[in-house]
Design goal:
About 30% of the residues lie in helices and about 25% in strands. The chain starts with a strand and ends with a strand. The strands form 3 sheets. Strands 3, 5, 6, 7, 8, 15 and 16 form a 7-stranded mixed sheet that branches. Strands 11-10-9-12-13-14 form a 6-stranded parallel sheet, with helices on both faces. It has helices at about 40-50, 115-135, 150-165, 175-180, 195-205, 220-225, 265-270, 270-285, 305-310, and strands at about 1-5, 15-20, 30-40, 60, 65-75, 85-90, 100, 105-110, 145, 165-170, 190, 210-215, 230-235, 260, 295-300, 320-324. The protein is globular and about 60 Å long. Helix 3 (about 150-165) links the parallel strand 9 (about 145) and strand 10. Bound molecules: NADP nicotinamide-adenine-dinucleotide phosphate. NADP nicotinamide-adenine-dinucleotide phosphate binds near residues 43, 154, 217 and 265.
Length: about 325
């Protein structure tokens, strides 16, 4: 049996409870992974609250990112070995001491990438990778806007953009978060709790606007994210930390012949070639020191509800992990 943290039914952090679950043998194409560190992400809150539909009726084990060691392999898994250190990101099931999952999702970890760093960066780092290289490939010398710059995805994205030579404007809530974002690649940071970010972006860009807005805050920021785009600009909406975008209209794009996309990480990671390539790029940037992974909150697995409370209350910066 292994300890797992499951949500009994959709709701607040209080629905999270500990359960002892049996650990099956891995079937064909599967692997049994013993977790050493588990990432906490905003998607866990969307599933817990019921904003995202549940794949089961009750007792959903949350968690979409973890790192650990392969303990057993099912038939037909050719490219992995028992004892190998690996990490993965797939929707749900990671808040547990160990689990069985499809081996095709596992990425072998280089020696230089610790279990904690891997658990803190697989989901967030691969998100930064697809946003900046696939959804809208930002160009050297261009100016782009990235919201929630001091968050888990935000701190990685700022450093990745800086490594690409892109002039990044970040937003963050409060002076401390703004200072942290500035230390992680953002050329300009706007405290969007205290300042009108639309007016500030116009000022910073001399009225020209930005080539792309990467927006994970959703309801509170998306009208402004469209407003600051230059002609032919790109609106990349990838989350809804403040609430979903419900009144978007195609006509919103007519103002500047904008394009809009609403991408999801797992559509990219489902392609194993993309997954291995993108993870390789992420690990290389971490190894070379271009990207530092900030694990600013650690909780035991049993205290997952506390981690959720902190993330929802905007009290976290960088990555949050659970230790089983
Ligand atoms: N589509 C995808 O493939 C994909 C993949 C990964 C992540 N995401 C999205 O990217 C975002 C960042 O994820 P993360 O796990 O790294 O979280 P995070 O950025 O560490 O935390 C969310 C941040 O959003 C900001 N925020 C603004 N309004 C908020 C509100 N009303 N309630 C809570 N937070 C608010 C807060 O920063 P300030 O205090 O600075 O405002 C908060 O710290 C999330 O929206 C997530 O769903 C999407």
């Amino acid at each position: 049996m292994v300890l797992a943290i499951a949500a009994q039914k959709p709701g607040g952090p209080e629905v999270l409870h500990a359960r002892d679950l049996p650990l099956p043998e891995p079937g064909p194409g599967e692997a049994l992974v013993r977790h050493r560190a588990i990432g906490v992400n905003f998607i866990d809150i969307y599933f817990r609250s019921g904003l995202y539909p549940w794949p089961v009726e009750r007792d959903l084990v949350l968690g979409s990112e973890a790192a650990g060691v392969i303990e057993a392999l099912g038939e037909g898994v050719e490219d992995l070995e028992v004892g190998q250190r690996v990490a993965y990101t797939i929707p749900n099931g990671a808040y547990t001491e160990a689990r069985v999952l499809e081996a095709r999702h596992l990425v072998p970890l280089p020696d230089a990438i610790s279990d904690e760093v891997a658990a803190a960066s697989m989901l967030k780092g691969l998100t930064a990778r697809y946003l900046l290289h696939d959804s809208y490939p930002a160009q050297k010398g261009e100016t782009v806007l990235f919201h929630a710059a001091a968050g888990g995805v935000g701190l990685i994205a700022g450093q990745w953009l800086a490594a690409m030579g892109v002039n990044a404007i970040g937003t963050a809530g409060g002076a401390e978060k703004c200072a942290l974002a500035r230390e992680h690649g953002y050329a300009h940071v706007i405290d969007y709790k205290a300042e009108d970010f639309v007016a500030r972006v116009r000022e910073i860009t001399g009225g020209a606007g930005v080539a792309a807005s990467y927006d994970s805050v959703g309801r509170d920021t998306y009208p402004g994210s469209l407003e600051v785009l230059k002609t032919f600009g790109h609106f990349v909406s990838f989350g809804q930390s403040s609430g979903p975008v419900t009144d978007f209209s195609l006509a919103d794009l007519a103002k500047g012949s904008f394009t809009a996309t609403r991408p999801v990480l797992f559509h990219f990671t489902n392609d194993r070639q993309w997954l291995l390539k993108a993870a390789g790029e992420l690990f290389d940037l971490i190894e070379s020191g271009s990207i530092r992974i900030n694990i600013n909150q650690r909780f035991t697995l049993a205290k997952a509800a506390e981690a959720h409370r902190a993330l929802e209350a905007r009290k976290t910066t960088g990555s949050t992990i659970l230790i089983p």
